[in-house]
Specification:
With 138 residues, the chain is of the alpha+beta class. It has three helices and eight strands; from the N terminus they run E-H-H-E-E-E-E-E-E-E-H.
Length: 138
């Protein structure tokens, strides 16, 4: 099974990036590959409409390590584990999403990778538009 690590550097502190990305209310703004409608909380899970249909998402508990790993329960009943990290970077933060080619053809894998790249670019655009880091400024 092939894996691909897709990353983007965001000129914001890792803490700011983590807090924004971890907030369910923000998912629809940046994670179009996952959330195409309002994200609703159902117990410890989140439910939203995605390009794949209605999905249930369960994130790991908030933590000080920048880990945003999550499981997505697809309409088919399959659960997909998605590693997602916010790492310190000399220019701010690096967000790294790992996708795995588990049971999908090359075309689907490439399409999924492109959607992740688009989502991470959107996340960077939103966060850098709000308050980009300039030099040593926080």
């Amino acid at each position: 099974m092939d894996s691909q690590h897709i990353g983007v550097v965001i000129r914001r502190s890792p803490e700011e990036v983590y807090e924004f990305a971890a907030e369910p209310a923000n998912m629809q703004r940046w994670a179009a590959g996952l959330a195409q409608s309002e994200v609703l909380r159902e117990g410890s899970s989140l439910v939203t409409e995605s390009p794949m249909g209605r999905v249930t998402v369960r994130f790991v508990e908030r933590n000080a390590y920048g880990v945003l790993d999550h499981e997505v329960l697809l309409p088919s009943g399959e659960t997909v584990y998605n590693p997602l990290r916010v790492l310190p970077h000399p220019e701010g933060a690096e967000v790294v999403f790992t996708i795995r080619q588990d049971g999908v053809d090359d075309e689907t894998f490439s399409r999924d990778a492109a959607m992740v790249r688009d989502d991470l670019a959107r996340l960077r655009g939103i966060l850098e538009e709000v308050s980009p880091l300039r030099g040593d400024a926080p």
